[in-house]
Amino acid sequence: MNRAAQVTEDELRVALIEGRFQLHYQPIVSLGDRRIAGFEALMRWDHPLRGRVPPDVFIPIAEQTGLIAALGRWAVRTASAQLAQWQRRHPRRRPLFMSVNVSPQQFRDDDLLDLVREVLMEHRIPPATLVLEITEGLMMQDPAQCRAVMQQIRNLDVRLSIDDFGTGYSSLAYLHEFPADTLKIDRTFVSAIGTGERRAAIVQVITTLATIPNMKAVAEGVETEEQAEYLNDVWCRFAQGYLFSPPVPADRIDALLADELAVAA
Ligand code: G
Ligand code: G
Ligand code: MN
Asked: How would you class 202 by CB atoms within 10 Å of its CB: exposed for 0-12, middle for 13-18, buried for 19 or more?
């Protein structure tokens, strides 16, 4: 059995108290000029004995035990503070943005709106540069309540991104009813580009959907130049993936941003 699968609530609690969780950041690149436009924050946990425990393992346990509330708050606060710092150091005509994954439980939590208001005020980040990533599954569970929360978030001018778009059931049926503004094209579709598979055509369908006013598409898991060029040709504006950078610690992002400045100068 996978040792990581036996992570316990106590271990998570201790890790939270001891500050053992980290955020890594994956650049989201603007395909037009290949510059960093924003980031996705991704949680990492280096367990002293088990080594790195993947989020796919510990997030579900955090959700089952209710610890996701505290863990999620920590992630939103940390990513927002980091974003504010990068925005100050790297002013742009279009300010850098930060996308944070939010689990269904956090989304249903009344505190989410207060938390968002808190970080916007504390760090003075433009609301439209904070993006909450939610999954399609969430929208299916309780559509009416979900739509209400989404609208309250949009009323703050904070953005909402649908993660792994196209993999759930809701996609088309619900899209027009929910005030999301970004569709993340799941990497299973991106990886089919250039293979002649029908899945690749979905990429074009999603980028076309994203031509709805005020909608954007972000392609996930871009690994090859061919994929990046195809995406740019079908007017997908943003992409993330190993071609540009894996998720890395904050200091590595500092270096990437500094490199871009050097090139621009
Ligand atoms: O790097 P990757 O293995 O990092 O991430 C796996 C999955 O874990 C992602 O699909 C993402 O949805 C989830 N995840 C990563 N960080 C967070 C986080 O801060 N909050 C939530 N809810 N999910 C996260
Ligand atoms: O589900 P979500 O989209 O939040 O998770 C992003 C996941 O994708 C993370 O686990 C991250 O490490 C992973 N990832 C990021 N870029 C690439 C890539 O180019 N290829 C693959 N296979 N995975 C990637
Ligand atoms: Mn995500």
From this structure: buried
The full DSSP string for 176-195 is TTS---EEEEPHHHHTTTTT
pLDDT tens across 76-110, in order?
A: 999 999 999 999 999 999 999 999 999 998 988 87
> Ligand 2 pocket check: which of 52, 56, 220 to mutate, most ligand atoms within 8 Å of Cβ?
220
Q: Does residue 247 line the site of ligand 1, with CB under 6 A?
A: yes
Average pLDDT on 151-156 reads 96
Ligand 1 center–CA 63 separation, angstroms:
12
Q: What is the pLDDT of residues 224-260, one digit of tens each?
A: 999 999 999 999 999 999 999 999 999 999 999 999 9
Q: Element (H or E) spanning 43, and its range?
A: strand 35-47
- Contact between 100 and 133 under an 8 Å Cβ cutoff? The reply is yes
Amino acid at 173: A
DSSP state of 66: T
Ligand 1 closest atom vs CA 133: 12
Reading phi first (left if > 0) and then psi (alpha if -120 to 50, else beta), residue 117 is in alpha
User: How many residues can be counted in the chain?
Assistant: 265
For residue 244, the CA-to-ligand 3 centroid distance in Å is 16
Ligand 3 is a single-atom ion; what residues have CB below 5 A from it? 101, 133, 163
DSSP 67: T
By the 8 A CB rule, do 136 and 76 touch? no
